[in-house]
Amino acid sequence: MKNTTKVLRYCKSCIKEIKLNPARYLLERKPLICDECISSIDTKLEFRKAFDVETLFLSSYSGIIKQWLMNFKELKDVELGPCFLNIFLPIIQTAFPHYLFIPLPSCKSRVMERGFDHLSLILESSHLRFLSALEKEEDSEQKKNSGPERFKAKRISLKNPNLDLSKEKVVLFDDVYTTGSTFKESLEAIKKAKPKKIKGLIIMDNFHVDELRMK
Ligand SMILES: [Zn+2]
Q1: What are the extents of the domains in the chain?
Q2: CA distance to 23, 178, 202, per residue, from 210 (Å)
Q3: Phi then psi for 79, rounded to 5 degrees?
Q4: Ligand 1 centre from 29 Cα, in Å?
Q5: What span, in angstroms and rounded, lies between the C-alpha atoms of 21 and 33?
Q6: Of 180, 113, 23, 9, whose CA–CA distance to 200 is shortest?
Q7: What mean pLDDT do residues 106-124 have?
């Protein structure tokens, strides 16, 4: 490493100066998060089938990532964009080589209100190849409903009905996996573009086996 100029870097999560331990300095050229914040990530790293799709769950629905997601989506702290996948990138690149990432869709009014599509921004700031191929109908109606009606009201489809992904292996990407209903609908929609292979990547796992048993 020839560059001896000391560049001060600040943790995007706690804003403290990042004091890197030597091991990390070898692995990361531009660290985003300090050691302390990294240790607050509730890492899961579990591969599990989600509707027959081999899916990688990065963390549990707790810890610092849950806080980041709130700050990112609700307080629009876009600086956090690259943080979500950062420490997992070597694993993601190994698990999904040459895959095209497909963010699960948010409804248009939420994206307009926020000013950005949060999942696309996470993928873009992590330098992953992605395509926002799916769209979701407005869910203004679904809030009035509850229970099973709420799920019927969701509609996810291909933005371009003629989209051909027959030369691509794709990864469906979402932030939180709870019941899997959005994932399942997105899966049905993306299958129409006939990708060679479909896998899944979820940042936070909020799925509870007990809920499944009740169905
Ligand atoms: Zn920090």
Answers
A1: 1-39, 42-214
A2: 41, 12, 20
A3: -60, -25
A4: 17
A5: 12
A6: 180
A7: 91
What distance in angstroms lies between residue 109's CA and the mean position of ligand 1's atoms? 33
pLDDT tens profile 2-24: 555 667 889 999 989 988 777 77
CA of 11 to the centre of ligand 1 (A): 5
**In sequence order, which residues have a C-beta less than 8 Å from that of residue 95 and are 6 or more positions away?**
47, 56, 199, 201
8-state DSSP, 17: B
Structure tokens of 56?
């990688």
Helix (H, G, I), strand (E, B) or coil at 205: strand
What is the CA(204)–ligand 1 centre distance, in A? 19
Q: What's the average model confidence in pLDDT over 146-153? A: 56
**Under DSSP, is residue 51 helix (H, G, I), strand (E, B) or coil?**
coil
Ligand 1 centroid, distance to 78 Cα (angstroms): 16
CATH 3.40.50 fits 42-214, yes or no: yes
Q: Which residues of 140-173 are buried (b: 16+ CB within 10 A; e: fewer)?
A: eebeeeeeeeeeebeebbbeeeebebeebebbbb
C-alpha 87 to ligand 1 mean position (Å):
13
C-alpha Rg value of the chain to the nearest Å? 18
> Could you give the CA distance from residue 2 to residue 9 in angstroms, rounded to a whole number?
18
- pTM score: 0.86
DSSP per-residue letters across 97-161? TTPEEEEPPPBHHHHHHHTS-HHHHHHHHTT--B---EEE---TTTTT--THHHHHH--EEESST
